[in-house]
Design goal:
The chain has 116 residues and is of the alpha+beta class. Helices cover 30% and strands 37% of the residues.
Length: 116
Amino acid sequence: MDKVLIRGLKVDATIGIHDWEKQIKQPVVLDVDLSYDCYAAGQSDDIKDALDYFAVSQKLSHFISLSHFELIEALAEHCCQLLLKQFPVNKVKLTLSKPEAVPNAQSVAVQLVRKA
């Protein structure tokens, strides 16, 4: 199966279990693999036959910026379900990272794989 990949999508989110985290925005970074048959788009060279990665990125960014979650696992799960419901994909692999969440670590992350 073909894939459309989005790498390093940075969005400010209200995420965390601590009271102070619920009062601020923190960056999260997403890497998304979307299983999508690219054959028609490759033949037609027409956006109507493609998975619009700009629209996918905008939808994710908007959802995350308005949401409030305590756990990155919950945010990642909701992002996967949103993608499966709103775009013509049958499989999503999503890695959601929270930079600087742990001292001396570049980031912490979860990776989910979900199918329609």
